[in-house]
Structure formats: structure tokens, C-alpha cells
Amino acid sequence: MDMRNRRLYLVGCVFLGMQLLSCSMVNEAHSSQVNSESIQHDGTENDYVLGKDFEVARLSKVTKFAEVGEPVVIDESYEKSNPYEITIRQTKITDTFEEELSKWEDFILEDIEIKDKKIVGKEKIVYIDYTLKNCGNEKLEFYTPTVLLESVEDDYLSGIEMAFSSENKGGKSAYQVLLAPGESKDIRIGYIIPENRLNDELYINLTGSVSLEDDCCLVKL
Question: Residues 139, 148: contact at Cβ < 8 Å?
Fold first, then answer.
């Protein structure tokens, strides 16, 4: 390569490098702007809170409530293709386990002190007994954690993980209930309320984890 061509080659390399650097800076600035706008948009228009995208946004925006003993039909208004009915029969808050501890989820009990089937610490057990009925014309495939216990923190509902289900058969079908049309079944589920949430308002969400825009029906514990 002669001197003239070499000089042209070096000038071209410098120019190309400057172009690439410029594009990189523009893309980085654009990316930062998009992320900032996305967070701001979610926070202002959808009441979105990081980490709560599968929970009801605000208790104050829930419009459907029911009482213990009141049948509630979960149908197309809740985006359920096969309608079913849920009736909360009774609830109980206690410190005593009414089943063998082997029926409860080990990972939830491992940090709780228990003696003679009673909780020694300040945590509490919540039992929820409900009746499920298939109101549709097809076989209903239902999972018992759909009935979800939630606590309220600063107007936001936050789910508590289910620790016991009378329908837990283990394996892939754990917590699954299959009902023929018109068939009903009594179900019991249990939760452990952590000490730091004992003073929160507690609600039973009959439609389970929902997105921010979906309707749900709550029963006050």
C-alpha cells in the first residue's frame, strides 16, 4: 500500500470509528429515556408497583365484595370460560394445627417453632373452608390455591403463600380438583400469617392472582 492510499485508509477508519461511537451514544441515551418513561407511565396510569404485577393494584379500587356464606359465581365477567361457584363456609384463626404436620408444606414450617402441634411464636394459622361447584357444561379443572389469602399494606393487596390444602395429592396433580358438571366439593386450605403481617387487614380473593386490570371478588376475613 503506497503512502497516499494508506493515508486515505487511516482517515476512513477514524471516520468510521467516530460514526460508531456517535450511534452508540444515541442508542444509550434513547434506551435510558425509554426505560425512564416506561417506569413513569406504569407508576402513574396503571398504579403499577414493582414486584406487584400479579396482584390487585389497590384495595380502594376493588368494587366486588362478598360475605362468608354467600355463593359467588366466577364466570365470563372474570374471564373464566367454564363458570363455577365458590362459597366461603367458614374461616378460623388459631395457633393449633388440626391435621398432621406432614400435610403442610415443609418449607413454610421450617422457620416456625412448633410444640405439640401448636405454634410457639407469634405466627397464626388461618383455615379457610369453602365449597366449590361446577356450574358449567364441561369438566372443571380447578386448583385450590386459586382461593387466595391476601393482606393489605398501604392500600395494596399482597398475596400470602398457601401452606396446606385438603386436596394435596402430591406430584403434578397436587392441589388439582376435577369436577363434573353440577358436581360440588368441600375444600379446606390453610395459611401461616407471619408476625409482621398479623395487624394487616386480611381478605380472601375468590379469583386468585390477577393482573392489575382484571376484576376480582374479595371476602373480608
Answer: no
pLDDT at 18 over 50: no
Domain range annotation of the chain = 1-45, 59-220
Average pLDDT, the chain: 76
Which CATH number is 59-220's, of 1.10.3860.10, 3.40.50.720, 2.60.40.1240, 3.30.70.3040? Answer: 2.60.40.1240
Check residue 14 and give left, alpha or beta (phi > 0: left; psi -120 to 50: alpha). alpha
89 secondary structure, DSSP code = E
Question: Which 3-state string (H, E, C) describes 50-82?
Answer: CCCCCCCCCHHHCCCEECCCCCEEECHHHCCCC
Question: d(Cα 124, Cα 145) in Å, to the nearest integer?
Answer: 19
Number of other residues whose CB lies within 10 A of the CB of residue 213: 7
Predicted pLDDT of residue 212: 56
Q: What is residue 48's DSSP assignment?
A: -
* SS3 state of residue 42: helix
